[in-house]
Amino acid sequence: MEQAQLIKKLRTERGYTQTQLCEGISSRTTLSSFENRGTELSSGILFQYLDRMNLRVEEYQLLLENHEVSPKRRLAAQFVKEYYTGAFSPTLKAEIWENYLNSHDFYYYILWFETKTILAYKNNYFDDKKYEKEINKICDYLFKVEVWQHFEMTTFMNLMFAFSDEMILALFDSSKETLTENATNPYYTSLVTTFFINGIILGFQRKNDHILSQFLTGLQAVAKKPKYMYAKMMALYFEKLLQARNATNPKDIDFTDFYAALELFGMSEKAQELKEFYEEIINENK
């Protein structure tokens, strides 16, 4: 569905005439031309239309994306599909790379890099030295963007495995202000929670307490909000895991009630995943 069609649909569903929606914002002709002929509309006017209809910009974007399959969404969907087959096809890699060369859109560069590395990491044969040039290019991009949003946070989160400890801490420090602001933004809460969890897991796996501390502090900040229950539960788990790792006898730290709570909420698979991660970290620490 095109933007013009979507705005008309949203307007009529909410009982606004063109005149009512435009009052104090634009002329009726501006809206009519947009709805009927798809003429250009400034973002400022569009945002005011949405505000009058009690719609957030991010809600509008989601509605628009649900009706349009962009090249990015199509390739991302194919990426996910092939990831779960255990191999990325040469066709997919070539199409992603061609899109990058034609558009210079860094999204395609990141997606291409993931096709080259993410399964290697999953299967324990990733060699960061082999991709030093590409990793430096990605880090340079992240450092240049002062205000991280969804793309930058997702890029860092998904490719953290490729970065050195020093680079992770430097990038984290450079983005700390934005991360703090987004931590309690409902639009970003799920992403930021996963972002911090991934960093904590990597900190445990690399036995780097500085990384662990930075990301755990971030997760604890999200967990302070009562409605963010998942963040609260995961923060509790990692706090207990840290205690167990540092204890003379890890079994003194009891996880029984925690796992039972996950089972109660129908999260048995998550409970099993966390039990396995506990065993991995405790066994490595022996």
From TrEMBL:
SUPFAM superfamilies cross-referenced by the UniProt entry: lambda repressor-like DNA-binding domains
Limits of the HTH cro/C1-type domain: 7-60
Listed CDD domains: HTH_XRE
InterPro entries: Cro/C1-type_HTH, HTH-type_regulator_Rgg, Lambda_DNA-bd_dom_sf, TPR-like_helical_dom_sf, Transcription_activator_Rgg_C
Pfam families: HTH_3, Rgg_C
Gene Ontology MF terms in the entry: DNA binding
PANTHER family named among the record's database cross-references: TRANSCRIPTIONAL REGULATOR-RELATED
Designated name of the protein: Rgg/GadR/MutR family transcriptional activator
Native source species: Enterococcus saigonensis
Upper lineage: Bacteria, Bacillati, Bacillota, Bacilli, Lactobacillales
